[in-house]
């Protein structure tokens, strides 16, 4: 529907196509049409300090929008008689601290109540009697500490409590059996109370906010209870351990039908700073199907392996004891992975274990193989890893645009070859990474090789080599002019180097004039 409205110019798309907006002229026309056909009051953004006068609250009002004003209080003298009022928007009145209980006493036909981004501290008890409510929006009410019982609101389909300071879970949550959309935080709990989710069988969106407005720790949820939500389309939650995650998967393979999911498993530190500037550090910056795993123990038990992560687009691995990604997920399903970040996994010996190749499925075309969708890869602080990418996977990396490797004490090769690959009668003499734009290699004291043969990366924009003193050969093959002389890629921006002495020690280039051609692009830190 939004696409159609945008196509006929009733809505405008933002530059990133994530949001849409309505042009002022179209909005004025819409309000005019609305005023002709129904009784509404629209005073959005009118800089009101208090509610409109009582005489403006007529009995035939159906919609009232007072959003984005400066209303500070709704006193007890306001108790409008509006039995037909179905939608009330008071959102973004940021100074609104108090709403008297009398205000909702005669609004029993209300279906949509939006108080989001207001300063209210308590939701009036009279809201408990609004039995026709289908949507109650209280998100980003950072001072809100109390919500009355929701037991009677059995028609409620949408409830948003994210970003509130609630001190306890609202009573009657288990009675909201028609709920389709639920966003909330922990409300002071460490674990989502058991017994509620199985009764919310119609849920399509379940977002359990990671942290509250008070800065409390993350709230976890039981895997089996999330697995009972058979209609779920979008999920954001935190499982305490990998066993809970597996229990969810065994309860219901619904993750295959989820259109979006951001799942945290274990303790993932989202406060770390990215070692390489510009790399996404928070799960919100990752694609819409992302799993983050942290501080977990896998014990090499392949029966414990996640076998269904088909469609996964983002993967964050932090501080766990797996020796390779093969101990974590089924690589044959990793065709849509776009971003991978592996951090402080000191037991990890390789990205992909050599045993996996023995049992791997038949090779697929490079555009549909393992890691064929990969765009960004970051490996940081994995001190037991010597080789990053196995050569057998390189033909699949046709979409790889960014490689970041940093603080890996034993890293010797970025693209490693096995003895069998080195001794083959038809060795690979060159590899092409057509979309690679960024190559960052930082603090790799044992790095000796990026790749043993030619590497063609004609889209390179940024190269950074810091503290890699043992690296003596640059395999990057520059484009050649008609006279056979090398030229920098048209996309090349800069080459950042430290220390300066290292640049002079790099003696092996794919062309003898390559160093001189690239010198104008070099920036020494």
Automatic annotation (TrEMBL):
Record-linked Gene3D superfamilies: Ribonuclease Inhibitor
Source taxon at top rank: Eukaryota
Alphabetical keyword list: Plant defense
Cross-referenced InterPro entries: At4g27190-like_LRR, Leu-rich_rpt, LRR_dom_sf, Plant_NBS-LRR
Family matches, as Pfam families: LRR_8, LRR_RPS2
The Disease resistance protein At4g27190-like leucine-rich repeats domain, residue ranges: 365-474
Protein's name in the database: Disease resistance protein At4g27190-like leucine-rich repeats domain-containing protein
């Amino acid at each position: 529907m939004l696409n159609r409205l945008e196509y006929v110019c009733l809505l405008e798309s933002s530059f990133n196509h994530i949001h849409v907006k309505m042009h002022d002229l179209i909005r004025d026309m819409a309000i005019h049409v609305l005023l002709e056909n129904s009784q509404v009051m629209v005073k959005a953004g009118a800089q009101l300090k208090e509610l409109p006068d009582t005489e403006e609250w007529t009995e035939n009002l159906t919609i009232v929008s007072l959003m984005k004003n400066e209303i500070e209080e709704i006193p007890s003298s306001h108790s409008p008689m509006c039995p037909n009022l179905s939608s009330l928007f008071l959102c973004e009145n940021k100074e609104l601290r108090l709403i008297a209980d009398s205000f909702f006493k005669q609004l029993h036909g209300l279906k949509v109540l939006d108080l989001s981004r207001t300063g209210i501290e308590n939701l009036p008890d009279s809201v408990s009697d609004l039995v026709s409510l289908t949507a109650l929006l209280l998100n980003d009410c950072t001072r809100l500490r109390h919500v009355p019982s929701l037991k009677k609101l059995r028609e409620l389909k949408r409830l948003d409590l994210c970003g509130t300071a609630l001190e306890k879970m609202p009573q009657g949550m288990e009675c909201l059996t028609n709920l389709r959309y639920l966003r909330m935080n922990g409300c002071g709990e460490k674990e989502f109370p058991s017994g509620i989710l199985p009764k919310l069988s119609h849920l399509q969106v379940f977002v359990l906010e990671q942290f509250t407005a008070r800065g409390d720790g993350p709230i976890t949820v039981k895997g089996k209870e999330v697995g009972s939500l058979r209609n779920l389309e979008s999920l954001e939650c935190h499982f305490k351990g990998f066993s809970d995650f597996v229990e969810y998967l065994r309860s219901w393979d619904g993750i295959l039908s989820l259109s979006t999911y951001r799942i945290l498993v274990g303790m993932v530190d989202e406060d770390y700073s990215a070692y390489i500037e510009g790399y996404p550090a928070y799960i919100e910056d990752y694609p819409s199907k992302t799993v983050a795993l942290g501080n977990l123990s896998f014990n090499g038990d392949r029966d414990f392996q996640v076998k269904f992560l088909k469609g996964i687009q983002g993967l964050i691995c932090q501080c766990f004891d797996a020796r390779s990604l093969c101990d974590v997920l089924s690589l044959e399903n990793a065709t849509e992975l776009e971003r991978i970040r592996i951090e402080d996994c000191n037991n990890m010996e390789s990205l992909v274990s050599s045993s996996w190749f023995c049992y791997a499925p038949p090779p697929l075309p490079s555009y549909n193989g393992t890691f064929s969708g990969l765009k960004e890869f970051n490996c940081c602080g994995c001190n037991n890893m010597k080789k990053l990418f196995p050569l057998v996977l390189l033909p699949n990396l046709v979409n790889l645009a960014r490689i970041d490797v940093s603080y890996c004490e034993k890293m010797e090769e970025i693209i490693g070859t096995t003895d069998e690959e080195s001794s083959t009668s038809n060795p690979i003499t060159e590899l092409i990474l057509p979309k690679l734009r960024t190559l960052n290699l930082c603090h790799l004291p044992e790095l000796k090789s990026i790749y043993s043969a030619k590497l063609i990366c004609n889209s390179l924009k940024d190269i950074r080599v810091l503290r890699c003193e043992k690296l003596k050969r640059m395999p990057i093959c520059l484009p050649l002019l008609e006279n056979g002389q090398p030229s920098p890629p048209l996309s090349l921006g800069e080459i950042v180097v430290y220390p300066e002495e290292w640049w002079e020690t790099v003696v092996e280039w794919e062309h003898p004039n390559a160093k001189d051609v690239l010198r104008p692009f070099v920036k020494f830190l």
